[in-house]
Amino acid sequence: MGLSQWRPFGRVPEMKAHDLAQALERGEVQLLDVRTGLEYRRSRISDACHLPITQLTEKRLDSLGLDPERPVVAICLSAHRSIPAVRKLRALGYDARQLRGGMLAWWKAGLPCEAGHEDAGR
Asked: How many CB atoms lie within 10 A of CB 43?
């Protein structure tokens, strides 16, 4: 993946917060939170895997055990770090999109979050 693919600008497929909440209830998608560890521990969507964008490599991604047959939604704070994450995931063959507006949109919609230590390996 070239350097231009890491730019946090441009268009990638997206999903709105309420649509994501419904897809999660139906078990249709899996989540990849690419924020820092501190951001992730403070507030995250339940069952999101965590891998900071600065550590997003194919090897680290493989260690998360994401199902390549299920769509992945990348999450960051404001939908900028998730743009290169989506590009990387798509380059690796995943059906990937980002949460439109990031966690800011999730919080604004009043959707549920959890906090505390992250689980190892998630």
From this structure: 15
